[in-house]
Amino acid sequence: MRKAFRPIFIFLALNSAFLSNADDSAVSSFTNSNEKASERRIAGLWHDVNNSNFSNGHLIISQQGNQVFTAHYLEFKGTPFVEHGNGVREQDTITVEVKVTQQIPGWTTEGIHTLTLSDDGQYLIGEYASGGSKGPLKFKKAGK
C-alpha cells in the first residue's frame, strides 16, 4: 500500500513546486484589461456633438450583456430625424444596425453605426455607413 501512494506524493510535490513558481501575469493583465473595458459605462444618455448642422440630438443606449439597443433623435437643419437600433459591444466599441423611423428626405432608412468610447469615457466617436456613404459621428456623455 505504501508503494502505491509514492507516485501520488511525487506528483503532488512536483505540481505544488511548479504552481508556486508559476507566473500568470500575462493572463491576469489580459483579464484585468477586459474587465476594465467591460466595466466602463456606455449605457445612458449621450448628446450629439457632430457639427453645427445637427441640433437637439440625443442618443440613448441600453446594454444587456454584450447586446446594445439604441434610440436616436436629432434635428438636421431643423428637420427631425428618428432611428433605433440593436447591436453588440466588444470591449469599448459598439456596432449597431439602425433603422430610421422618421426620415429626412433623401437620407437612407438603414445603416450601421460603429462607435468607440474615448479614453476619458466622455465621448463616443465613430462613423455611420449607409447606402454606400460614410460619415463621422460624435456623442458626448450627458450626466454621470
TrEMBL record:
Keywords, comma-separated and alphabetical: Signal
Keyword Signal: yes
Domain of life the protein comes from: Bacteria
Signal peptide residue numbers: 1-22
Protein's recorded name: Uncharacterized protein
Higher taxonomy: Bacteria, Pseudomonadati, Pseudomonadota, Gammaproteobacteria, Alteromonadales
